[in-house]
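User: Could you walk me through two proteins back to back? I'd like the raw sequence and the structure tokens for each, with a short line separating them so I can tell where one ends and the next begins.

Assistant: Of course. Protein one, sequence then structure:
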Amino acid sequence: MASLRSLSIWFFFFFFFVFLINPSISIRTSFIKLPTSDGSRYCDSWRLAAETNNAGTWDVIPSICVDSVAEYLNGDQFRSDYDVIADYALAFAKSIEISGDGKDVWIFDIDETLLTNIDYYKAHGYGSEPYDDNSFSEWVEQGTAPAFGASLRLYNALKKLGFTIILLTGRDEHQRSSTETNLRDAGYFGWERLLLRGPKDQGKSATNYKSEQRSKLIEEGFKIRGNSGDQWSDLQGFAVADRSFKVPNPMYYIP
């Protein structure tokens, strides 16, 4: 009887241990279940998770969400989202007392912030295909990306308020000429500096590279009042702005 009882206890603990460590049968799976539906509701939820940085690092959009992302980017909701963020940014800017010494800075990213590359991504699955640096570089050199209406409106309003505009992009230094031409053709004029990646910046994460550039500006005496970008890496790190504004981009993630 004692040996039978010991055997029963041994089996109890054995199966209890297996139950805990095996995720396929663990009780935790009954509480945390990822959506597997191919409906638009899941894709709307995924897009929210990506925009709020809750999705963490991701490489391409879920294949089931291509149509949903395309519909969003080409629809009224995307333009409305962009307009609302621009309105909040402008309202904050109007609350700043400009010193008049040219040191009150607003930083803008370029791609998917000032300029839209939607025509490029339409041809590449709206972010469902892995990023191709050579292909995108060819697109950049064409210099045909149009402006976001809301960003151009915000940009011009900030200039009228007296902010110094600095453009901080992950594009490379050799793309300066095509970038400047594209910006002017899209309606952007009068920026103070256009900061691009130089040879020493290659290999750095976007967060570190942009933080370092902002730090240099602060060392020069600039006060970074605002920062607009489509990636969290445009906004986070160190030497951050007084307030940052994340514009929507569900097509790609840059750490």
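----
Protein two, same layout:
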Amino acid sequence: MSFSGAAVGSNLRRAVEFGKTHVVRPKGKHQATIVWLHGLGDNGSSWSQILETLPLPNIKWICPTAPSQPISLFGGFPSTAWFDVVDINEEGPDDMEGLDVAAAHVANLLSNEPADIKLGVGGFSMGAGTSLYSATCFALGKYGNGNPYPINLSTVIGLSGWLPCAKTLAGKLEDEQVKNRAASLPILVCHGKGDDVVPFKFGEKSSQALTSNGFKKTTFKAYTALGHYTIPQEMNEMCAWLTSTLALEG
């Protein structure tokens, strides 16, 4: 199943046209819905085909396609992307406006799910970046632009990615309600030591930044020979983690 749509972030200058969204329906009792975000230059279809094969009959997967937009890393050449990337390094600037638009699109996709369904977001590479950014929005109760974050997340996954705004997170999670939300959110961060696109240290430091800022349920898994892709072992461990974390019936 697929559909397309445009989204304009509230109080944001940037209007973007999202591509097709692919939905993988649960094969058993519907207990959770997870929006899954692809990496730079990819689309929702490729990940929906992978997710459809996983032994997780209680999860509905929503796999949107990012808008095509100019990417600074590519000299302005357009590509499907959740936000702009200037350079993949720790000192690179964060595209706050793009991150807010992407996180708001995820929240919008989850907004019509039934009240008894657990909600989550996951992704690969820059999709993982958007997912982990959404985790901070959930904890803070607001987007970077100050607008309220409307979704009660139950799980977040980031594969081969990084945490945007990690360097500015310190000191923001002081309020008691914010601390409680951060401490209660299960997060899985996975990264391959052979990653030549998003270096392993990015995933490792992102996990450390989450933990040190109060996201106490952060789990980090390292894979020795894994490059910038996924493997059955990683998918199997993600399935086991989700089944346990979300108390799925199987």
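The domain at 19-246 is CATH 3.40.50.1820 (Rossmann fold).

Let me know if you want the two compared in more detail.
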